[in-house]
Amino acid sequence: MRKTIQFAMLAGALFALPRLVSPVFADDPPALPASAVPMQLEGVGVEEHLGRQVDLNLTFIAENGYPVRLGDYFQKGRPVILNLIYYTCPMLCNLVLNGQTAAFRELAWTPGNEFEVVTISINPEESFDLARKKKSMYLGTYGRPAPGWHFLADHDGNAKRLAELVGFKYRFDERQQQFAHAAAIMVLTPEGKMARYLYGVRFPTRDLRFALAEASEGRATMAIQKILLYCYHYDPKAGGYVLFATNIMRAGGVLTVFLIVFFLLRMFRAERKAATALKEGLA
Q: Of 180, 183, 177, 126, whose CA–CA distance to 152 is shortest?
């Protein structure tokens, strides 16, 4: 009887796998195939271009309203952390900036001393005034002077050109009036070459420190783990919950099922050993 129950539990866990790894919708319509990409995310993601030289002549609008060359932040012999976000993003961009700020607080190094940070809006409609307000908010959260953290607005579509160079692919959703994009920050060498991509909304201090140290030496390192988070949320017109952490949910669902299967298999083996020991004791 016990074996029958355990087999039923195992079968149930395996049966639940497709539902755990599929997106969750309000009215629970048929799930998309595992390989299918939601329409909102077509062409969205990050393509690593390690070693690629970015165009340092691209110009943007600084927080003070004046044009500035990207190369102005690469003339100090320091590695540069690049953020491509937009200031009115309702969720994911703030999480990236929050995670980055938290990592900076734990890092002994300071923007402006050992490295530079350049945060650029991908939204051509956002002004330098928004950049200035965002900078004031995050430097206040950071809690100490950071003369090397710069917040810029787009200029002549150069944010899009820069995004293409670094492999940061995004698209504008006309219906929701929002940008679909992934969560990632990039680390560049002092000469402006791509050195490292860091993904997600939390950046371990050790990883960040290593990435900066390697970039300062001109070395490029491929990401060990690449789990993309997407800017996604409830869309009433689509009738469904599109979660910005879709990939994390899927990975978590798969992990949960495999953990269940793992422990059930351990139970089977333990029971088999106990039964064998009992037979040998009675023999």
A: 126
Query: Are the C-beta atoms of 180 and 207 separated by less than 8 Å?
Result: no
Among 62, 136, 143, which Cα is nearest to 110's?
143
Identity (one letter) of the amino acid at 68?
V
Residue 148 neighbours by CB distance under 10 Å: 20
The 10s digit of each residue's pLDDT in 167-221 is 999 988 888 788 888 889 999 999 999 999 999 889 999 999 999 999 999 888 7
Per-residue confidence (pLDDT) for residue 174, from 0 to 100: 84
All residues at 6 or more sequence positions from 48 whose CB lies less than 8 Å from its CB, including other chains: 167, 194, 197, 222, 223
HSE toward the beta carbon, residue 123, CA cutoff 13 A: 20
> Rounded to an integer, what distance in angstroms lies between the CA atom of residue 235 and that of residue 242?
7
Which CATH number among 3.30.1360.20, 2.20.25.90, 3.40.30.10, 3.40.50.1380 corresponds to the domain 39-231? 3.40.30.10
Q: In whole angstroms, what is the distance from residue 202 CA to residue 93 CA? A: 12
Residues 74 and 13: their CA atoms lie apart, in Å, by 53
**Structure confidence at residue 213 (pLDDT):** 94
Q: Single out the residue of 203, 183, 202, 178 nearest to residue 126, CA to CA.
A: 178
